[in-house]
Design brief:
By secondary structure, this protein is α/β, with parallel strands linked by helices. The chain has one domain: 2-enoyl-CoA Hydratase, Chain A, domain 1, CATH 3.90.226.10. The protein is about 50% helix and about 15% strand. It is built from 13 helices and nine strands. The strands form two sheets. It has a six-stranded mixed sheet, with helices on both faces. A three-stranded mixed sheet has the order 5-7-8.
């Protein structure tokens, strides 16, 4: 009966693929034509699949990956998540809160903190672009593997606002966190592994094989012991203030994006001249100096 329910649920997804096999729940972001850009609907389906995996006794470990040429290129900028009919779960319809509580950033926190809170370990397999919102998903996962040539980073911090989930100081040294957050630079999967942002990288043509070699033994472990070990590790970081820092990030996100004088410049250029012109304005000074992306 559970197997039939899984098939029915998977068949209803429009933006992800979902499969359970040998203790592994595989969730594939499936908007390859958009490089798996995060629409509100994709986010809702991803959270639904994560919750289903946590409640399924046939699942021990969860694997998140991306279809096509990228893991995830970031949030879908073609639609505004706060417009009626396209709002994330938990949006508050109130004139008292909408203009100043940054509901978009708070909704994003509510989504991705669930990866952190799941009782089961979540593994990310990253290839191609993993940018902005994609890097937030990746960084909230418990274990991350990437292709050597994957591109990881948060370029929108160059001109738009701070990260919705400011994971940098929790994933790497202060020197590297400041370098990446202040510049918006990207790094390769190999460099991310060298810096300790992720655990390992592999040649792109070996990524699938090597990740499954890592995941299969985990799938044979005791789910209860995995849950206890994950909770123990999470508690250490929460005692150091990680959850409070992430929960409070919407305030700096609001200041960085909506309050500062030139916070809307990227949007203005995109509206008047097109997205390509806005991206050139954002990335051009770095590209001209020979930095990637």
């Amino acid at each position: 009966m559970l197997e039939e329910a899984e098939k029915t649920e998977s068949a209803e997804y429009q933006n992800i693929l979902y499969d359970v096999n040998d203790g592994v729940a595989r969730i594939t972001l499936n908007r390859p034509e958009k490089r798996n850009a995060l629409s509100v609907e994709l986010r809702k389906e991803l959270i639904s699949a994560l919750r289903s995996s946590e409640a399924n006794d046939d699942v021990t470990v969860i694997l998140i990956e991306g279809a096509g040429k990228a893991f995830c290129a970031g949030y879908d900028l073609t639609g505004v998540s706060g417009t009626p009919g396209n709002r994330p779960t938990g949006w508050i319809e109130s004139q008292h809160f909408d203009s100043w509580t940054d509901q978009t950033a708070r909704a994003i926190f509510r989504d991705w903190i669930q990866i952190w809170d799941l009782l089961k370990p979540v593994v990310a397999k990253v290839h191609g672009f993993c940018l902005a919102g994609g890097s937030e998903i990746m960084s909230m996962c418990d274990i991350v593997f990437a292709a050597d040539d994957a591109v990881l980073g948060y370029p929108p911090m160059r001109v738009m606002t701070t990260a919705d989930i400011p994971y940098f100081p929790w994933k790497m040294s202060m020197a590297r966190a400041k370098y990446l957050q202040l510049t918006g630079h990207t790094v390769t999967g190999k460099q991310a592994a060298d810096w300790g942002w992720i655990v390992k990288s592999f040649p792109a043509d070996e990524l699938d094989e090597q990740v499954m070699r890592e995941v299969r033994p985990i799938a044979q472990m005791s789910p209860s012991l995995l849950a206890a070990n994950k909770a123990s590790l999470n508690q250490a970081y929460e005692l150091m203030g990680m959850r409070t820092h992430l929960l409070d990030a919407w305030k700096m996100h609001l200041i960085g994006g909506a309050v500062r004088a030139d916070g809307g410049e990227f949007g203005r250029i995109a509206q008047e001249q097109g997205l390509a012109a806005a991206l050139e304005w954002m990335n051009g000074p770095f590209l001209r100096e020979g930095f990637p992306f």
